[in-house]
Amino acid sequence: MKNTFLFCFILLLFSATLMAQKMSPEQIKEQVSIYKNDIRGPYHRIKWFCEDGTIREPKDPCPDNVEGIQHATFKESALKLRETNHLFFGEILASNTIPEFLDEANNYSRLKQYQINKYLASIDDGWVLRKGQFYRGALQSEDEEAWGKTFFETILRDDQLVQSKYYLIRQALKDIPHNGDDNLAQTMRSQSKLLSEAIPKFMDARIKIHGQPEASDIIMVKNFLKTTNAKISEAQQKDFNALLQTMEQFYAPLDIIALEKEIKALRLTPDINTSFETLIETAKQDPTSEQLIADIANVLYNIRQDILAVKGGSTRLKLLDVSNQLENKLLIETQNWNTETLSENLHKIKTLACVSLGTGLIETWEYSAIEKQLNQHDLADHLSIDQLNDILISARSIVEWSAATTKANYQDVVDTYTTFEPLAYGFIDDRVRSSIALSMGNAVSHLGVLVAKLSNIENKVMSIDNQSAIRGLNPGYAFGKLVVIDGNPDEVEVNTNNIYIFEKPPSDLKPVAGIMTVSEGNLVSHVQLLARNLGIPNAALSYDNLKDLKSFDGQEVFYAVSNKGNVILKAKKDMSKTEQALFSKQERTKNVIEVPTKDIRLDVNTVVNMREVDASDSGKLCGPKAANLGELKKQFPEQVVEGLIIPFGIFRSHMNKEMPNQNKSYWTYLNDTFKEANAMKSQGQSEENIEAFQLKALDKLHKAILEIPLDESFVSDLRQQFKSVFKNSIGNVPVFLRSDTNMEDLKEFTGAGLNLTLFNIKDEDKIIEGVKHVWASAYTERSFKWRQKYLSNPENVFPSILIIPSVDVDYSGVMITKGINSGNDNDLTVAFSRGAGGAVDGQMAETRLITTKDNLLLAPARQPEYIRLPVTGGTKKYYTSFERPILNEKNIKDIRQLAIKIRQLMAGHSDNKNQAYDVEFGFKDDKLWLFQIRPFVENKQAKSSEYLASISTKTDTNQLISLNTKL
What we know:
- α9 (184-198) packs antiparallel against α12 and α13 (256-264) packs antiparallel against α14.
- The protein folds into seven domains: 1-181, no CATH class; 183-213 and 216-250; 253-330, no CATH class; 339-455, no CATH class; 460-588, Phosphohistidine domain (Glucose Oxidase, domain 1, 3-Layer(bba) Sandwich); 601-806, ATP-grasp fold, A domain (Dna Ligase, domain 1, 2-Layer Sandwich); 809-936, ATP-grasp fold, B domain (D-amino Acid Aminotransferase, Chain A, domain 1, 2-Layer Sandwich).
- By secondary structure, the chain is of the alpha+beta class.
């Protein structure tokens, strides 16, 4: 009996565990398919839900004295998805409490999912409600609308939420029913998309509606119907009628009388009232599109600036609804605002930048940071090419920041949905295209074409349109297969010989022949620094460029980026003889580097106090992280933590141990691997076979090192040093374990980010095991691939380990002590993100160019999540918003002073007086903490290449250009 009870208990426990397990994407995909074909979708049965908490059958309504609503319940499978995967399909608003639906603890996931569900339903015939949308009584539109109105009036009373989530709230207003309006723009795009899929000849019209929507599109659709009428079905005729009805609503004239009446009924601020009065007066006088857009832009700007001064959730709701209506009108009018001269184009860009602010795509402080650049033309008749380039950079930045805002708000949920529903990936593009970013991008493109022409910069990227959005980041050239990745890159297995176009590269990118990414991204991420160091051509392009290049996916191409930033991408058949010659064997072997081992010290077999080393020990006793930080500790004792170093010698002595099942030591196994690889090469075997052999052998070594028995004398020494240096026992101090190899301090090679850093480890066992993991990381596929083609003796890479106590910084990042883009040795390039580990992994960081006098914003942060380091060890994730900059004026001042001291201090340790440094640091309560310094290495061969010089343009950038110049 006891055994039976125990068995049942274990079975129940096992069942509960299974219930709590997350469903896989494949299982969710299958469940979605089931819902699509179910006449009730994810719904189970209709019930009455009474205010007294009772739930009744459909034929047994709530008593007369008790309010109630009727809607569907959910199938057990749908409820399980909510519990295990936090996924909400077929959401019924009226069934929720406001906090549940807002879902603030999960970065507003449930609210965003509602929006994505509506998008999928609009483009995929109801999606999970393909048949369930006809399930009568599942939800009541009047109940949904009443709930939505209450929801918005409630959350809009929260000043902090309105300020920090202005963009998200305005977007939610377009999707959550609350006043009878629908998201007409999205409906119009969805209807045209479905028709183009059914009738391929309608594709050109659909592209026009998506890319350059204007009122004349109604005539275009009607004309299409006239010529195609006999060839379409009755159902398709109904779909066309529905599209035309939506378009008529969308392009309906602004109802000035209704607007005037609505505004007079609201208690608004003087600035908002004045801007409305101006708009209404203008609208009554048959204005030009330019004037109407300028006045709407002013209204949107003032609403954004004064929204917190408007009191009451109901008033704010009405005001934001009006702002969305005005935005729709403005988007239509932008297609009618044609610019012919440079002056008119600059005025349009400036106006649309204001709209970007007013609609929440950029923040007030971000607009202020570049407003001066955009206004340069106001009091001038002529501008230099340099000045026009500055304006172009600022204008292009607004487009990129705007698109990044959409991604920052929705990318997490879109990524989740894309794993089981690929159609979800189009959601972000749909949102960007329904914003002012589309028209702003077109205006900036026109400016880019003119500036490129004046500067003699000509991109030659296949045969695609709008190449002015493409710009080079790192000089270099490559030949290989073109691979275009539109979507999440994390599951992509990259090939060293390919050229990749990413929307966003993975943070642990393995080496590739060439890279192009949508927008510039983070200038000082490890991927960007490695590309710059190794001469890997790297360029930025627009998302539209990426989509245009998808048709060339899989082709062999030549790719080059010049020192001036112009880009060439051409098919193999179009390569010149000069370009073909670049890939001869002699040319390809020029950039091989030897790891120096002559002065390496392998005799030190004890843990070293970081205070005992300085920069002269780099590459000898330990790597540059520890050596240079020891140097800084002497100069900045209050800003550098204490540290311990596990030197090369301890690693080397452990490699003398016998490797399991090999009858040889770990060290002999490693060297034999490279000897065998060299023998294979001399026998003429292919690079692919040699690399496969090496990776297989090193994978075995990597796994064996993870199991290597550590000497008890070493472990005892480590425990003692923790007490001596950190003033506490191991296991009581959370620490970082940072790999620090001798290949990271070479004049022509940086190993930035190749090997392992372990964050905030506290438990003794995890620290001891962590030592082996850090050692082993030098033999991972990624680490080996980045270095193998550039090091002549990769077997002589030795890892040391730097152990430093964790500092739970408020924000952290990287400084390069030169202007990466400007090339000025006196400038500073700084990138910061909130929390720990900022900027190094390619986060969308706040990036600045800090000069002796100025502090120029290159990009604001758009990373919604960040990590902090609790004293208990490990990491904890938080979410942030972007209404304030990360770095303040005191931080900027401290950064300038730090750079001055570093240049003075490190000058004696480098032959190059202008040597730049890569510095990692952070701020805690405005106090600066230094974590790492290493030489910043650029690829001089790529910069001095005769071919790259030959394709670089020569321009007099001081040449003055009349603002009356025709576009």
